[in-house]
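Annotated sample (chain length 356).
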Amino acid sequence: MDSICLDQNYSTTRLLTKEGALIVENSYDNFPKELFLCENEGRIGGGGLRTKGYFKHSYKKQGKNWLISDANRRFGVPIELILDKDGDELVLITIITVVFNGEKFLEETIQSVINQDYQNVEYIIIDGGSTDGTLEIIRKYEHAIDYWVSEKDRGIFDAMNKGARLSKGSYLYMLNADDYLLPGALSCLSNEINSQVILPDVIYGNIFSLSKTGCKTFCPTPKSITKAYHFYNLPLHHPGAIIKSSVFRGLKGFSLTFRYSSDFDLFLRAFNDGFAFVKVNYSLSCMREGGLGTQNQEVALLEFEKSLLINNGSLIALCLCRFRRYLLIKKNSKSIFGVCVTKLHNYFMWIKYGRE
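Output written by the structure step:
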């Protein structure tokens, strides 16, 4: 079997096949069925390369031959690959973008994915039934998108679960519709994967925060996530991390119990279950300010606390989380005490993480 390159200019159109499931992957049967709509139920539209019979896989070289592999490096059938770079493994990284009425920034997000220099990328877009120009933008790039669908959902984390269920990648990357990947991000992640004997469970890096005025702020993440108290805050952001698809499945995806903090809950559960977090010293994406969690910080912190209680989190993390919420309340009330202590907290963060 030979690989197919439809267009060398895009990361998502280089390594395709005309055959689908050549290896039986772990299924999503343990996901709650009510998370997903039935075929065509309330569906507005859909399409992409997969609907035209093109599929993606992970690949690994054994000797001189390339073999199709799965998320756990189990081998399948041999394949002839059309490559422009050397290497001995090309894991399939699935980028999932969820969007609802996101015409303002979506095109920039799509371009940041399809213009990556990594060769084995699957791109899935889940639209919640947009009524603006979002679908026109998606259709414009349909030739470089593996699969897209537009239908009602129960919010951002429901849509992410749906995208994961549709994915074929060894790793999942959740990229919001108003964020974008930085050049070379996926190649950096691939290099880290290839350097490990055992596939890492979660790989994360730094990100930038982009203000409404266009000002970028460097947002460093901890050098390592090995202590339970790291979860007094969200130690990494989902637009700056990939998670092994088999790990995501085993954790049953994002919990819809949390409206704003299901990513915190997912990473906390992954940590509690003993999955390893590996950091790359690279900035992976740029995340715009003003997300749902930022707009609803007090509720988000309450959800942090709830997740820590449900998942037997660190008592230190719980206390620090409650203290942060207290500071936020004081800051919002413009208390002089609250402002002073908040500045002290920010100084602590600077000491802990540093600046670029």
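Annotation: The first strand starts at residue 43 and ends at 47.
Annotation: The chain has two domains: 1-181, 197-356.
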